[in-house]
Design brief:
alpha+beta; two-stranded antiparallel ribbon; about 15% strand
Length: about 90
């Protein structure tokens, strides 16, 4: 991920996610969390030829959402407003 020109567009949850150690990626100008660094892990992508530093954290996130609950910020996704006499 390039660092120049970032952050460009952020959701209202950006600061809260950042405080939770989110490591962001840029998608169409939006800052979106790719993963969350646990304590003791640098909150940044460290590239390698083997498993990346996010591998275990993403596995833990997956397990947590599968067994408990998770929230997904969809602020960067398209929204449609339907209007007219037949709109529900």
């Amino acid at each position: 991920e390039y660092a120049s020109g970032r952050p460009r567009i952020v959701s209202p949850l950006y600061e809260r996610l950042k405080q939770q150690r989110a490591v962001f990626g840029s998608k169409l100008g939006w800052e979106r969390p790719n993963w969350f660094a646990p304590q003791g892990v640098e909150p940044q992508d460290i590239y390698s030829m083997g498993r990346q530093n996010w591998f275990a954290a993403v596995g833990d996130e997956h397990r947590h959402v599968r067994e408990k609950v998770g929230i997904f910020d969809q602020s960067s996704f398209a929204k449609y407003e339907l209007t007219g006499p037949d709109a529900l």
